[in-house]
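Re: that chain you flagged

S.,

Sorry for the slow reply, it's been a week of failed gels. I finally had a moment to sit down with the sequence you sent. For the record, here it is as I used it:
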Amino acid sequence: MRAFKYRLYPTKAQANTLSDHLRLHRELYNAGLQERRDAYRKRGKSVTAYDQITSLPEVKQGRPEFKELNAQSL
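Prediction finished late last night. Pasting the structure tokens below so you have them in one place:
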């Protein structure tokens, strides 16, 4: 099995964009995790991944900065 590593040399603008995207992805992931934890504590049942995926358009409407992120990565 082979592995390849590629070194990136982004410009300052690209590095800032990558940093912003990472921050937004981290925020969304942590919010989804917290939603699952809260639902399990309150009802004893977790929220399914499908439920969270179907709520993404509402998240994008409420938070316009999420619109610039790739839908597959969300």
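What I noticed first: The first helix runs from residue 12 to 43.

Talk soon,
D.
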